[in-house]
Amino acid sequence: MWPFVLALVLFVIGSIGYIFNSFIEGSNQGQQYKMNKINEQNARLENELLRQKLAELEKKNNLR
Questions:
Q1: What are phi and psi of 8, to 5 degrees?
Q2: Which domain of life, per UniProt (predicted)?
Q3: DSSP letters along 33-63, please?
Q4: What is the reported pLDDT for 2?
């Protein structure tokens, strides 16, 4: 009788751990997705700023 009870208790503990770990992994994936989106937006803004600076320098260079 005791081995079955022990097996059942260990199975329940393992299941709870597995479910908890699944939630953590899902949360980490969501955070990674958000960071990727932020990094893409930052790259776009940086490219736009560089284009504006290049246009200003070209304009300044053509005026000379």
A1: -65, -45
A2: Bacteria
A3: HHHHHHHHHHHHHHHHHHHHHHHHHHHHHHH
A4: 85
Determine the Cα–Cα distance for residues 29 and 42; give it in Å rounded to an integer.
Answer: 20
Structure tokens at 48: 């736009």
Nearest-angstrom CA–CA distance, 55 and 35: 30
Give per-10-residue mean pLDDT for the chain (64 aa): 91 93 86 94 97 93 79
Distance CA 36, CA 29 (A): 10
Quick one: pLDDT at residue 38? 96
Half-sphere exposure of 45 (CA within 13 A, CB side): 6
